[in-house]
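Regression check, iron/sulfur cluster case 183:
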Amino acid sequence: MDYINQKFENQKEYICCSKGCALCCKTIGIPFSKLEFEYLIEGYNRLDDTTKNIVNNKIKKLINNEIEKECPFLINNICSVYKYRGIICRTFGLLTFSNDNGKEEYNIPFCAHKGLNYANVYNSEMNKISEERVKELGYSEEPKFYALDRSLLFNLKLVKDLGLDFGESKRLIDWLKEFSEKN
Ligand code: SF4
Ligand code: SF4
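Current build output:
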């Protein structure tokens, strides 16, 4: 996923993601396509039995409570299937832009409120990035909003060239329900 990594590289002055920081994995309703979910399960299948059991228990709890409080693959604040995580997981923390049916949306990572990514240049009162702060603090790169809407990613030339079909998309919890019923 060099395409997304390049964006993080460009914005590195504003990014403070690090191992053990996992607030972004505690959000709800993470969408996964069929292809992404199958890849995630490939990662799950490679886990050792102890880790698998921990994940299985978390999945069970999640399904029984019907509340998606945190991703069940998160163990001790570390993603147990990091290499196999979904596209949206890979974009957590960037400024993003989407244009769904002509409706433009600019998203600031929620962790800016928590003093993390872009916090130094985030104006919480106006919920926007402060150009003045960017100049004042002398950053070399401007903060950029990237068009990382999942449907845009699915339509990348590379994806088309490879003929990848992402299939149906739904919430991670819904995929996990199906997965549990079959296993
Ligand atoms: S798959 Fe990994 S990165 Fe994605 S939400 Fe779950 S724990 Fe976080
Ligand atoms: S996106 Fe925010 S919450 Fe997630 S790892 Fe990066 S800094 Fe932490």
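Comparison notes: Residues 16-17, 21, 23-24, 92-93, 109, 111, 116-117 surround iron/sulfur cluster (ligand 2) (CB under 6 Å). The mean pLDDT is 91. No diff flagged against the previous build.
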